[in-house]
Amino acid sequence: MSNVFLKIVLATLVFMASFGGYSQKRMKIPPYLKKGDKVALVCTARKFFPEDAQPAIELLKSWGLEVKLGKTIGLDSCQLGGTDKERAADFQEMLDDESIKAIWCARGGYGTVRIIDSLDFTKFKKHPKWIMGFSDVTVLHSHLNTLGIASLHSIMPFTVPKAPEEVKETLRKALFGEKLKYVVEAKGYELQGKAKGQLVGGNLSILYSLLGSKSSLDTKDKILFIEDLDEYLYHIDRMMQNLKRNGYLEHLKGLIVGGMTDMHDNEIPFGQNEVGIITEIAKHYNIPVCFYFPAGHVKDNRTLVLGKEVEFEVNQSEIILEFKN
Fold it and tell me: Please, is 68 exposed, middle or buried when counting C-beta atoms within 10 Å of its C-beta (0-12, 13-18, 19+)?
């Protein structure tokens, strides 16, 4: 083996190590917004009507942004905002429209997974834009992460009317590229530590449902965020056990548990709450873990830039999450 070839191999290995290998590749950060930019509102899941969109429209306009309502806003197909074909076509139009700088999914529920394989991200990958939302929008967040493009886990038009002003402000800051750093009080049952890495994740049930598909996350050397709503405790355990068995937790740098809202138990109790279930599994990985971080199906649903590098610290008194520019 020649010295030149050895040098090339060593240089390649050093380069990969500096980014943690493929899983730590640099993510594309869509261009931040500026006043006058246009944001599209669309339905990828449950239906949403124009009159309900007014608070979100007013919010965007107060930030100096223009708004375009997608063709799916106002469509009614049982639970969904239009048929699968209509929702896919509307989203595709907004992906390809260069005048649209961000796409805000109107609400969650269920339905995004029914259209994900119909979408063509070819043009989007060359000219990425912000895609925003939470809950069922995790399908898009996870798929975009596999494409190497960051996205915003945030409130949606459906939740704007009940969102506190400070929560809306976190979305504005994220969209316009301003500094994001969250410091919240520790609850006392966290697993302490410090970590750096890309933030990935979203709704636990959705991540669980995507396992084995081409939209499934790569979590190696990353910090995983999870949250959920209206689940039985035994099913939280089932999902966490599945993530564990699929290697999702094996090389994590940290775990952020957001809202675990309206959890249920059976007539015969499971024997652990969500904190106990997750701690029992996570404690074996020697990583920082926090609970009830203000994001998810909670009123205090702060914006998270998924795919961005963060510094995460859990100590005796505080939980700190800082997004790096």
Answer: middle
pTM of structure = 0.92
Q: What angle, 0 to 180 degrees and rounded to 10, lies between the N-to-C axes of helices 274-282 and 233-245?
A: 20
- Residue 318 structure tokens: 């505080």
Give CA 104 to chain center in angstroms. Answer: 13
CATH placement of domain 38-175: 3.40.50.10740
Q: What is the pLDDT of residue 26?
A: 82
Mean pLDDT of 23-40: 90
**Which of residues 235 and 19 earns the better pLDDT score?**
235
Q: Which residues are catalytic?
A: 135, 227, 297
321 phi/psi in degrees, rounded to 5: -130, 115
Query: 248 and 219 in contact (C-beta within 8 Å)?
Result: yes
Whether 7 has a pLDDT exceeding 50, the answer reads no
* Bridge-based pairing state of the strands 130-133 and 100-105: parallel
CA atoms within 13 A on the CB side of 228: 21
How does the average pLDDT of the chain come out, rounded?
93
CA dist 101 → 29, 142, 158, 172 (Å): 12, 20, 20, 14
Query: Yes or no: is domain 181-323 CATH 3.40.50.300?
Result: no
Establish whether domains 38-175 and 181-323 are of one fold: no
Q: The tokens 């239009």 sit on which residue?
A: 82
Q: Which two tokens stand for residue 240?
A: 């966490």
CB atoms within 10 A of CB 5: 9
pLDDT in tens, 36-66: 999 999 999 999 999 999 999 999 999 999 9
Q: Where are the domains of the chain?
A: 38-175, 181-323
Q: What is the mean pLDDT of residues 304-325?
A: 97
Between the CA of residue 218 and those of 22, 99, 146, 201, 224, what are the distances in Å?
9, 31, 7, 10, 10
